[in-house]
Amino acid sequence: MSRISSTYGKQANDRSVKSASKMYGGNYLTDSGKSLTLSGEQQLRGSQQLTKSGKSTKSSFADSIRTSTGALEQEYIKSLQQQVYLLELENNHLRSQAVKATELHPTMAAEAEKMLRELKALQAKVDALQLENFRKEGAAEVLQQKVNGLTQKLAQYEASHSEERERFDKDSAEARRERDMYQRDVGRLQMRLGELQEDFDHKLSDLKASETKVATLRGQLEAALDKLAAADSALTEERAQTARLEARVRVLEVELASTNTKGLERNIRELRDENLALKERLRREQSKAHEETLLRSKTFEETSALVKQNAALEQKVVELERQIEAERDKSHQWAGHASVESDELVRLREREKTLEYQVSSGVEEVAKLRLKVQQLTQQLNEASETKDAGTIDLTVARRRLQEAENSQASLSDQLSRLQRDKAELVAHVDSLQQELMKRESEKDGLARALDRAELRLNELQGEVTRLQQLQATRWSEVEKMADTLRSAAHSNSVLFDSY
């Protein structure tokens, strides 16, 4: 009986090898290029064939019990060949997934190069802004030279009293207009600073939201990595169980010749159930791996969106820097206006001293005229005593007295005008001092706001650097995952080639 069963086993093995080569085109276990092109529909068809073959195998086992042991061995070997073929299909699918994972690395490198180009563009913009700042400083020096020239011209104009008064009136009107203009500029700048503060707060809230989202994605990625590690360990265990099952199958093939039909059927049924359970577990692990792949792709897309959002935030930070630079230029212009106003204040003080000197000289001249009037009155009294001899002198004295009185009246009018001019000048000087103090306080406020903006800009740049480092860490983790998948695919290919 054992001799007959061994003869039947050899014939069944020859027929099964020939039928397998006819059915699958020969070396299907070694030709990985053809097996990689199989689609999901072929896998489904293979599983259906496996189900049908299981049913047919069950019926054939019932017939083989009635017929012969050789037919039973032949059907069992065919079933095992079909199962091995399905395992090869699953291995090819895992290889395709590993290839897809390795194809992500050039995309990541391209994204890194794109970010580097954007950083270089930002550096070029910063250099351009610095060059523009240098040009504006040169323009400020030219304006300072013009202010010095105007100061010299004003000193020359003070040589003439009438021209000085006319220029003083013009300067007063110009100062009023500049004061109104400065007040309007200050109002606009305050509104602009409020808008910039609101925009800055909005950008800060967006940055905090992006940080929260990055933390969430980090947690999801860590969970996905844990699941992938669990799937790898489960896959390794399944491979070990498959190897043990194959060893057991070989042992059972050796024992098949010496066992009876009932024991063989029971062992085959147990092996089939165990193989189906292992295949179901492998299918579940494969679905989990597919879900992990989808999760990784989703995480990559969200990371790319965050990179784009960070680039937009960097662009907005550059715009804020440009606006801060404009505000700094305006503060420099205000400093120039403040220096002009201080020069005007010095000139007005000198003018005040000149007017005070003129008033004092007018008072002295009035005193001299009064003394002269007293002298003329005394001469008139003396002339009245000598009426006959001094009639002509009396007439001359009266004329001189009238001229002195007229001169005294004109000097009194001039003195009153000078006093009014002095009062107006003092009021204008006080207003200019208040305006200058106000400009100094506004300048200090703008300097503090500029310092705060620069500090916030440094913080944002540090945050961008941290995000870039985090992204580099994530890329390295993804590369490690790709290497792990490649090694797993290689081990699968070696395992199935050994089969």
TrEMBL record:
- The answer to keyword Coiled coil applying to this record is yes
Annotated region described as Disordered, given as residue ranges:
40-62, 158-180
User: What keywords are assigned to this protein?
Assistant: Coiled coil
Q: Which residue intervals are annotated with compositional bias (Basic and acidic residues) in the record?
A: 160-180
Sections of the chain in a coiled coil: 366-470
Report the protein name in the record: Myosin_tail_1 domain-containing protein
Q: What is the lineage of its organism?
A: Eukaryota, Metazoa, Spiralia, Lophotrochozoa, Platyhelminthes
